[in-house]
């Protein structure tokens, strides 16, 4: 089966009634958890981005409490799992400011977790990749927002250099 393009889907949806579109959305939500999560975001959380960000931050805090900091192997697996979930939440939002804020918060929690970044090359590389993503997200924002987020980013990086010394 050939998958239709977005423009083809858009044209077809224009000819459908509201009831048919609702049924299609519900059918999509039944088959995949990610579709249901996206639909939940769009219907209930997209109007209040700050509350959504706060909820994701709370989820991050709870997930970081469960990390085994003594065993680096399990710490790496947990960090990757948390980052996958965070990436999905960022993708649902599609907002660069939310992306930068959540990634900065992830990095802050990683620094505060007690995991030694210098002991594990993989965890250090993961941290550095997130810093690059943050800088890329910040680059597309308004100057005032850039200033605030860059200050937060500098605080994360300063704490990185003080621990490395």
Give an account of the 3D structure.
- It is a single chain.
- The protein is an all-alpha fold and 165 residues long.
- The chain has two domains: 6-47, no CATH class; 48-164.
- The chain is 81% helix and 0% strand.
- It has eight helices and no strands.
- It has helices at 6-14, 18-31, 33-45, 49-65, 72-93, 96-112, 121-139, 143-164.
- α4 (49-65) runs antiparallel to α5, α6 packs parallel to α8 (143-164) and α7 packs antiparallel against α8 (143-164).
- The model has no long low-confidence stretch (mean pLDDT 88).
What are the secondary-structure elements, in order, as H or E?
HHHHHHHH
Number of domains: 2
Principal-axis shape: globular
Number of strands: 0
Low-confidence stretches: none
Mean pLDDT: 88
Number of helices: 8
Helix content range = over 70%
Question: Span from first to last CA?
Answer: 58 Å
Look at the helices and sheets and give the structural class: mainly alpha
Strand content: under 5%
Radius of gyration computed on alpha carbons: 19 Å
Largest sheet: none
